[in-house]
Model the fold of this input.
Amino acid sequence: MTDDIEWRVSPGLTEYPAALAEMEARAAAVAAGEARELIWLLEHPPVYTAGTSADPAELVDPRFPVVPAGRGGRYTYHGPGQRVGYLMLDLNRHGRDVRCFVHAVEGWVIAALGRLGVDCFRAEGRIGIWTLDRDGREAKIGAIGVRVRRWVTLHGFSVNVSPDLNHFTGIVPCGIADYPVTSLAALGHNETLATFDEALALTRDAFLMGLTSSCQIEA
Done:
């Protein structure tokens, strides 16, 4: 199954608008049967992205460009030191259940972080990836935001490896003001983006097999 899916890791920083345009073109090609599915790992220059439910009141200090993303959710931040994963997967193959897909992506990221010794969890009513910071508080280490068009997914996840966490203070991240954000570096882990990518690769097959077996296509 994974042989049919392209795995791409882009070096350096990829401008968000260019990545968005390429992602949308690739998803359309996947839906038309003209391209392989794609899992794309990349890193952006500092940018705030606005989901379809973004509240202008939560744009506290727009010190970086603000770009409409076209995905669900509210404002989020991307920048150096954060691994972003864009998933262009055909749910006709993996099960036409968007909620199950999001759950599976969360599980994949949790499993990858677990391989690095970071215990993470889902939080009821709060989408994303959560862990305990050094003060024992629940803190967000990863975000999930997806869109599905013609049963092909767009966008995906982001995980804070070693970004400047001060950059998140320009927004209310994902509309959640009562909990802090954290990163692998802030938790005392010195893994690189490449190390995290290796953990993602080692848990990818389990994610895809679980996705297909759990998210059954409705008749």
